[in-house]
Write a structure and sequence with these properties.
six-stranded antiparallel beta sheet; flat; 823 residues; seven-stranded mixed beta sheet
Length: 823
């Protein structure tokens, strides 16, 4: 047996190992090649067994010598090897393999022409086959572990041998999970471009066929990303790297956010989606909201997917308990549907990874069979259990219970406010779905509005004719018909102050408004958010106390206000992602500069003022973490061009546990994973603190006076004063002209005038007004005419206050020139 035969193959057969890692090599202590991947010679000409590694490559990163012990110390470090005879970089990791070192990697190719130049095809990389092999090996190893346990009971004398076999299997499992994590990073990078540019495309003017094709591409990319996320989550669980990250959250708001995710597909299928509280809920608890939301969303999505008619309902119950550690909450969730259901044999397969309950399900509905397996593991991590009850043709009910902690700020307090005293109020709910109507009627009763449910207009009309009083009407949009309009008109005629609310399926709002004409009733979208409905009642019955609307808290929506005039730098080495970032930011109303690596980002912040840096992590020359550390050092030494606060956000395809922590330790302010969603990016930018308030007029005048004095030292004083007088006479006219262009929507001239105004104001260092003018210029360039006009109105108001003081300042300077003060 040769020395190379001792090199481990990560639990794979030699053939599988050679297919999965065609660009590997191994070296002995003399740094001679003892093993070569089948495709390595395509990118490393001259490579052959026995050749010295130092004659073939140099190390681009990290800075170590090509020596056995030096390389052995880098087994947890990403290596970049420069092939000396070509421009190719090999990227991968070194592993200790007995008396050998084993390198697992692949060439860093950026363009398809590089493949042709080195006589490579995508088959050399074996991405698909390798991923499938990895997943099959993981399943096989899981089964092997169970067999090992049974064998250990029967063959106790082999206990030590089996323990070692188990450790090897777990090590192989971790290696496969790491491989999947690396592959997820490589896939996320192009996925960022696919999803981002498709989203931008769908925001343009397209004909019907083009929009259909674009939406199909986007849906397919989303499905691929969902598959990738499932595999990544599963690899985290299998390798023991998934951790619970507790934070304070609102249970009701979390459920309603999950309902929003399934509202559109449910409306498309005509399914009612409902939720109800079985008792009171705590105002706030502490748990991993991301993972709880993931479980609820997965169960709701499955329920809608496998239900063709009827309804989907989620129920929640909170029970307070105590143990030796103190108080905690036990949350019980249940998601039931009226879908296809399952038999006992199918239920037995539900929580097994890569397994569907029925072989036909994956063909009909798609999916990996990982979702429920991941949900089960997440619930276990949160000290809970998950169960299912089902019957073929009669639907399913998934329930799970988890344990969360008390929120120290609120303890066991149930509600922020009690129900307002609205007196004797009465309501009716008209909905043809019995469950939906009953749930809404019960909800109104909970809020002290005595209510009845009717499934037809005729029955509701009979109730109205019986002289019953109606203060609230909840009308399902299925009754938005001429008869429904007549009923509402009759109700409003008898009870002018009655509150009428339409419960409308998502996407049908405009049709309902057309039916009711110019004065349509209020509406809330289905699934009905309790907070939205409660706010309608507050506005109608307690207009003097609008703060009562905080009875149920909802997560804040994405702000639609004017964006801040931020100066943004994008550090990204991928040309496609560079272009995507610039276009996405431009669509949001921002302009940005772009650099291709960490070194350039450091140089950029030294030369120009920036408010935000969007920093990729893996870049050539200098990675994003190192660049951030260098920038923070410059900031501490006061060497940044901006001189003040600078936000640095990681924008990377890394998505494993600990990645966010490493970014924060390097000095970054936050982390956003690729594919970058425009909404998530906007939330990051919206979270940046507003700039400090503008200096008082007196300080602004003093700054301008100093600027004029400095100009007088460089130029003829009389000329400077003449220039300042001309500016004061002309500035108001220029501001008025810019405002006129804003009113008529002349974007080109508005942008030109704002730019000129900015330059004129900057000469005399009127910094607050310069910032406003810059914001007006940016808004004008991006087509945000209204926001530009708002900035100009602020400039006009401030300038009117400053002008008299500036004129007095010039008079004093004239006097000093005529009669200079003696020392």
């Amino acid at each position: 047996m040769s020395e190379a035969d001792n090199i481990p193959t990560l639990g794979l057969s030699p053939e599988q190992f050679a297919t999965a890692f065609p660009f590997h090599f191994a070296v002995d202590r003399e740094m001679r090649l003892t093993q070569l991947g089948r495709s390595l010679t395509n990118v490393m000409p001259g490579a052959k067994l026995g050749a010295n590694l130092a004659d073939l490559v140099s190390i681009a990163r990290p800075p170590v010598k090509i020596e056995f012990e030096a390389l052995a110390a880098t087994t947890k470090t990403l290596l970049l090897l420069q092939v000396q005879s070509t421009e190719i970089l090999l990227r991968g990791q070194m592993m200790r393999a007995g008396e050998n070192l084993l390198f697992l990697g692949s060439p860093w190719l950026t363009e398809s022409k590089d493949l042709k130049r080195h006589k490579l095809t995508f088959d050399h990389f074996a991405l698909h086959d390798s991923v499938v092999d990895m997943l099959q090996v993981i399943q096989a190893q899981t089964m092997a572990l169970e067999d090992t346990k049974q064998l250990a009971q029967a063959l106790s004398r082999q206990k030590e041998h089996l323990r070692k076999a188990k450790e090897q299997a777990e090590e192989a499992n971790r290696a496969k999970s790491h491989f999947l994590a690396v592959m997820s990073h490589e896939i996320r990078t192009p996925m960022n471009g696919v999803l981002g540019f498709t989203n931008l495309l769908l925001d343009t003017t397209l004909n019907t066929d083009q929009r259909t094709y674009g939406e199909t591409i986007y849906a397919s990319a989303e499905s691929l990303l969902e598959l990738l996320n499932d595999i990544l989550d599963f690899s985290k669980i299998e390798s023991g790297r998934m951790e619970i990250e507790p934070t304070s959250f609102d249970i009701a708001a979390t459920i309603e956010e999950c309902l929003d995710l399934v509202a559109a597909p449910a409306a498309k299928k005509g399914i009612e989606v409902l939720w109800k509280k079985n008792g009171q809920l705590p105002q706030s608890v502490v748990g991993d909201i991301t993972r709880i939301r993931q479980v609820i969303a997965n169960l709701l999505s499955n329920a809608v997917k496998f239900t063709d008619k009827g309804e989907v309902m989620i129920e929640v119950l909170a029970q307070h308990a105590t143990d030796d550690a103190g108080g905690f909450w036990e949350l019980s969730f249940a998601v039931s549907d009226t879908g296809i259901g399952m038999n006992n044999q199918q239920i037995g397969k539900l929580f097994q990874p890569f397994t569907q309950a029925d072989a036909t399900i994956s063909r009909r509905f798609g999916g990996t069979g990982l979702g429920l397996a991941i949900c089960s593991k997440i619930v276990e991590l949160m000290r809970g259990t998950i169960q299912v009850e089902s019957e073929p043709g009669k639907g399913s009910r998934f329930s799970f219970t988890i344990r969360v902690e008390e929120d120290p700020q609120h303890g066991t307090r149930r509600f922020r406010r009690t129900v307002p005293d609205w007196g004797d109020r009465r309501g009716i709910v008209i909905d043809d779905n019995a469950s939906a109507g009953t749930a809404l009627a019960n909800l109104l009763r909970h809020w002290c509005v005595e209510s009845l449910h009717f499934n037809s207009l005729d029955k509701a009309h009979d109730h109205l004719e019986s002289d019953a009083r109606v203060d609230v009407l909840l009308l399902d949009s299925t009754f938005a018909t001429p008869d429904g309009v007549l009923f509402v008109n009759a109700l409003k005629k008898r009870f002018p102050n009655a509150l009428v609310v339409l419960t409308t399926a998502i996407g049908h709002e405009s049709c309902v408004r057309e039916i009711f004409g110019g004065d349509p009733p209020r509406s809330v979208s289905k699934p009905v958010h309790h907070s939205q409905l409660f706010n309608c009642l507050v506005e109608c019955f307690s207009p003097e106390a609008p703060d009562q609307a905080s009875f149920i808290t909802r997560a804040p929506a994405l702000a639609g206000t004017a964006r801040k005039p931020l100066r943004i730098l994008v550090a990204e080495d991928n040309p496609t992602n560079q272009k995507l970032a610039l276009l996405t930011l431009r669509k949001m109303g921002y302009r940005a500069d772009v650099v291709a690596n960490g070194l350039e980002s450091v140089a950029a912040v030294l030369e120009r003022e920036y408010d935000v840096v969007l920093m990729d992590i893996q870049m050539p020359e200098m990675d994003g973490l190192t660049a951030t550390i260098e920038i923070r050092k410059l900031q501490q030494n006061g060497r940044l061009a901006s001189g003040g606060a600078l936000k640095i956000f990681a924008m990377t395809a890394n998505a494993m546990t600990g990645d966010r922590e490493r970014c924060l330790e390097a000095g970054m302010d936050d982390y956003i994973s690729k594919p970058v969603r425009a909404r998530a990016l906007q939330q990051l930018l919206d979270g940046i603190s507003a700039p400090p308030p503008a200096p008082a007029p007196d300080s602004t005048v003093a700054t301008a006076e100093n600027a004029i004095r400095e100009l007088c030292a460089e130029l003829e004083p009389d000329g400077v004063i003449e220039m300042a007088d001309s500016f004061l006479d002309d500035a108001q006219d220029r501001i008025s002209e810019a405002l006129r262009y804003a009113e008529i929507g002349d974007q080109e001239n508005l942008h030109r005038e704002a730019h000129s105004l900015k330059g004129a104001l900057s000469i005399f260092r009127l910094t607050p007004l310069v910032d406003l003018a810059r914001a007006a210029e940016d808004h004008a360039e991006s087509g945000r005419i209204e926001e530009a006009g708002q900035m100009l109105h602020q400039i006009s108001s401030a300038f009117e206050k400053l002008k008299p003081q500036l004129m007095a300042c010039l008079d004093r300077l004239r006097e000093n020139l005529v009669n200079p003060a003696s020392d």
